[in-house]
Amino acid sequence: MAMGADASEFTPDPALPLLTQHRWALPVLAQLLEGSMGLDARRGGGARLIVLRNRLEAPLPSVKRALEGLAEQGWVEANPGDGHPLRPEYRLTREGILVAEAAEQVVARVRGLGLAEALTRKWSIPTTLAIAGDRHRFNDIKSALPGVTPRALVIALDDLESRALIERSTEGTRTPRPRYALTERVLPVIEPLAGLNASLSAA
pLDDT, tens digit, for every residue of 47-58? Predict the structure, then answer.
């Protein structure tokens, strides 16, 4: 079990896959928290779409989809105002600020460890958390991830293994079964991931 915590601390919140289904959602939240240069240049002040695209060096349609997904969950909203050209177009809601603060920690830690591309699939982070909660068999992991299909979980596990974030072994002799465990490489990310997960429950 990761860091001496019980399994409940690492039970993925049902909202987590809704957050991680968009590749750019976490970086967008972090950037909105940082604020933008202009009329609302303060932490949490929001940002314009073009500013987000330029900062993240991401495709514009992808950033828009991430914003739309975040708005659907109530974490981001369009910024009402007088239409001033420097006014941020998007800002965080009160609930979104809580999630964005946790997302900022995840983004910083992941980038610092060179794992920015390793946790971008919808089920990568939820699966990692489930394993951190002392769930090592396929069915145990799946039971902690409502909504995941067997195929999607297989893809997530294979991807995490290929990136050396988890390792697979077998247990049993008559009917060998795979067992999944976190590697040392991913352990520094677990605490901020757990914080992100907790923020969804608090938001």
Answer: 889 989 999 999
Mean pLDDT in the chain? 88
Domain 22-115 falls under CATH 1.10.10.10: yes
Task: Name the 3-class secondary structure at 24.
Answer: coil
Backbone angles phi, psi at 145, to 5 degrees: -125, 75
Q: Bigger pLDDT: 33 or 87?
A: 33
Q: Band the pLDDT of 184: cuts 50, 70, 90.
A: very high
Rg of the chain over all Cα atoms, to the nearest angstrom = 18
Q: Is the dihedral of CA 70, 75, 77, 79 positive or negative?
A: negative
